[in-house]
User: What shape does this take?
Amino acid sequence: MNKIKFIAFGSDHAGYIYKEFIKKKFYKNYNIIDFGSFSEKKVDYTDYIHPTASYINNKKNDNYLGIIFCGTGNGAAITANKYINIRAAILWNESIAILAKKHNNANIISIPSRFLKKNEVLNIINIFLEEKFEGGRHENRIKKIKNLY
Ligand code: RB5
Assistant: This one.
């Protein structure tokens, strides 16, 4: 069952068009909040991904998902993963999307906008949304992510 009810969006200029595309597809079925960016003007991804990740981080609620976009998906994911409760996964094909939910219970998904077609992105996000976290041994591993050495 799909538990996600709220989606927070964030992008830089490289992900802006894809963010708008996905937002339009999802606004009827989810409560959405958009942290920008709001145009294709060059910006720093950090300025938009920090507020998005911070929002999801503070919710501590499985009903919330962040979807973030930059050129490679890397800068956005690296930024989001600074937050203690965030598990941001870069989604770039169907199998990775399935496993990001089943094994990692990602609460933010990061899209490499310059390397995928719009419909590929829509497809892998939908696949992610339909998947369920497996729990069990993966739950133990997720708990250990917060263990710092
Ligand atoms: C912007 O040119 C690009 O560097 C950014 O979108 C992202 O790919 C960074 O990781």
